[in-house]
Each structure stands twice: as C-alpha cells, then as structure tokens.
Amino acid sequence: MYDVAIIGCGVSGASIAYRLSEFDLKTVVLEKENDVAMGATRANSAIIHAGYDPEEGTLMAKLNVRSVDMTAQLCKKLSVPYAQIGSLVLAFSAEEDAHVQKLYDRGVANGVPGLRILSADEVHEMEPNAADTVTSALYAPTAAVINPWEYALALAETAVVNGVEVRLNAAVTAIEKFDGGYRLTAGGETLEARYIVNAAGVEAALIHDMVLPHTFDITPNKGEYYLLDKSEGTRATHVVFQCPSKVGKGVLVSPTVHGNLIVGPNAVPCAAQDTSTTADDLAFVRTMAAKSIPSVDFRQNIRNFAGVRPNSTSDDFILECHDGFFDVAGIKSPGLASAAAIAEYVENLMADNGVPMHKKERFVDTREQVRFKSLPHQEREALVKENPLYGRVICRCETVTEGEIVDAIHRPITPRTVDGIKRRCEAGLGRCQGGFCGPRVVEILARELGCSRQDIDKDKTGSYIVRERED
C-alpha cells in the first residue's frame, strides 16, 4: 500500500510530489497522459505574478505572494530558466487610472514589495514601444517569467530521485473508500493508498465526485496565444498587462525566458480538452495586444497555441481535506506562481490531518541541466572531448546537440515523444518548430528506446508520425 497517491502531474501535483519526497512516505503520482505537465502547465503565459491581483485575505493572495521567492529559489536549485523582469499594468483612461490605484492598494495589503504607480512618461522610459495613449501604470518589480513545463518536470524528476514513483498513462477511472484508505483503478491497474491528493486540473471535480458529494464545478476556459520569433523578443522588456476584467488578466505582451515574445491570451469557455485555435479569436488577441504595444510584428509569428484553465465555481483555490482525501482544485491563475506555496500548504494540511511527516536522513534538492549553447567555449570543447555526441548539433534554431537529447531520454522520467524532447531540451522550440530536426529526433528516440520509429508519437498518445504503408 502507498501512503499517498497524487492524481495529476501538472505543476501543482509535481510541486506536492517534490515537497512530500522529503519525507518517509511511499508516494505515487498518477498521470493520465504520456508525460508530465501536459495540461494547463505547458500552455500558459509563463508568468510568476507579483501578487497584487488576488483579493486580500484569499488563499490566492497569501500563497501567490509567499511563493514568489520560493519559486526563484527552486528554479536556481533545479536549473530551471527564471528571469525577474517585472511587470506593468497599463491604464488608458481616468477610469483605468483608478483601477491601477486599486490594484496598488490591494498589492500593498497583500504584502507585495516594491510596487509603484508610474506616470505615462515613466512608462515610456521603461517601455519605449508602449502606446502613446497610456496614462499610467502599476509597476511590480518582483514579477518574473519562467519555463513552466521545465519547472514542473524538474520538480517531478527530483521527486523521483528521492523515491517517488510516477506512473504515466495512468488515468484514474474509479476510487473506492475502505477502512484505512482508498482503492484506485488507474491505467487499468488497481492500487491502494492511505491518502489521496486530487490535483487533476480540469478533471478535479470528476475525481472529487468519485469519493465525495458534489461540491464544486470546474468550468474550463481557453486562452489562445501567439509565440513570436526571437527577432521580436525585445519589443517589450517587462510583462506588459492591461487592466484586468472579470474574465481574466487580459491580453499581455511579454518576453519569454527563451528570448521570444509571447502575446495572449483571450478567455473563451470551452470543453475540458479543447486546445484548438480559431482565426477570429486570434484576431481578437492581436487587436488587444496592439493597444499596449502597437509595433508588434505579427508576421514574425512562429506558433499559435491554446491552453485550458481549470476555473472553478469558487472564487479561490480549493485546498481542503475530507477524511484523508485532499482537494487541490480550481488552481487557475496565479496557480503557476503559487505552486510552491500550495505544496507547502498541502504539506501542513496533511500534517494537521494525521499524516505522519518524518523527514528523510538524505534528501536531494538539486538538479543539473546541461545547456550546451550557454556554456563557455572551453567547457563546450571539454564536453565534446568527453562525449562526441555533444559535437553534433541536431536543432540548429536552438543549438541543441545530440548529447543533450540522449541525456534527456535517460533522465528519471523518460520522454517517449518528439514534444517530450522539446520540453526537456528545447529541440524543436525555435523558428522552424522542428521542421528540420524533427525527423532526426524521431530516429534518436527510436534508437535509444530500442523501438520502431512507428512507436514514436509527436505529442499525446496516438499522435503518430511514421506509419506503415497500407496496400
């Protein structure tokens, strides 16, 4: 029997797994997809919000603000890209000036450090490409950008190093309560656990209802994005927001940690797994972004994508315990920014509800990631001498070597897809989006995994690339 079964391995589930791996607990993570971070975690704005937006006194406010420094420290330990570039919320009218003041007051009440209200001239000193119609802005220097899927992956990998088991393709289809624990059916197999953590994202209400009376709904909401080439990466140097509305924080323009420019999202009700994009919705995103930074060149777009947010019928995060069943639900924005503190909160909630929390004598809290293109010339030369695979560039756009790809395949959580490699070492993330390196990545995966190229998917299970000819 396991002590803890965590359902879902997005950033919330991965953060909790990492946190619990410090203790003498037999923990398993059950993820329905063929890799970790396959839901909202991999398709979002990648922002570590400063914490001025959530209402004072909510879990969102408390955990967002607490988590900012925690996230920076974790990224440093786990070799995850993180850039504290600060954010601006732009106002374009006297009414929005008043809203900026409201956000400032709320941020001060929430304990956000360094907040300032800027004049239009000060905004243009910081962001020369901002629209001439800007009247004021809220500046939050602690906001940052991150690689969200690598963050979740790093947390999950480190949890595995510390003894946590991660099961992929393990969708939970039934849960039965018995005296002393729960019996779960996951991926067609049965297992038992004393405690369950429900971090199932858009399916959190479905998992909750397998065990407890229905108390909340998840209302999926889709956001669509543009990812622009690095040639647009300096069009903005901060995360540039507009004043938020009831449906979200609005369309932003922001640099990414990889040097690109991201623009989006909109907010559209959708089905739980609908990550499609439409011309009309993307046109809306483009129009709204031009209000902030009119000079963005959308001809440099290299990819459009959409993410689904697990909004709930609650106005706050749902972090509750019911007889050994822990809900971690409704983790919408600022969920990414709050993940580290959410895990800490769940740890304390578990301790308060009788889970024995005894720390291990040895806990690994660091992770190394080789990024060949970032190394000094002498270190590159030494690495190639040690392993010639580092001398073969596979992805020309991002300068990713065969050595990095092979290393990624043999890390604690094995990728079996082309996009799994992209999320781990950036092959295929650049301007051509895998047009040149994709076939070679398929060959390397098949070789290292000892399988046929026909067994390699592009992304989710069934997204095949190579098929036999049918006569």
**Helix percentage range:** 25-40%
Radius of gyration: 22 Å
Classified in CATH, the superfamily of the largest domain is FAD/NAD(P)-binding domain
Strand content: 15-25%
Total individual domains: 3
State the end-to-end CA separation. Answer: 50 Å
The CATH architecture of the largest domain: 3-Layer(bba) Sandwich
The parts where pLDDT drops under 50 for at least 5 residues are none
Shape by Cα distribution: globular
User: Given the structure, what is the number of helices?
Assistant: 12
Largest sheet: 8 strands, mixed
Identify the CATH class of the largest domain.
Alpha Beta
**Structural class by helix and strand composition:** alpha+beta
CATH topology of the largest domain: FAD/NAD(P)-binding domain
Indicate the mean pLDDT.
96
How many E-type strands?
22
Break the fold down into its secondary structure elements and pairings.
Elements: E1 2-7, H1 11-20, E2 27-30, E3 47-48, H2 59-78, E4 82-83, E5 87-91, H3 94-110, E6 116-119, H4 120-126, E7 136-140, E8 144-146, H5 148-161, E9 165-167, E10 172-178, E11 181-186, E12 189-198, H6 204-209, E13 218-228, E14 239-242, E15 252-255, E16 261-264, E17 268-269, H7 279-292, E18 301-312, E19 318-322, E20 325-329, H8 335-352, H9 377-386, E21 393-395, E22 400-401, H10 402-409, H11 418-425, H12 438-449
Parallel strand pairs: 1-2, 1-12, 2-9, 5-14, 12-20
Antiparallel strand pairs: 3-8, 4-8, 5-7, 6-7, 10-11, 11-12, 13-16, 13-17, 13-18, 15-16, 19-20, 21-22
Helix pairs in contact: 1-5, 1-8, 2-8, 10-12
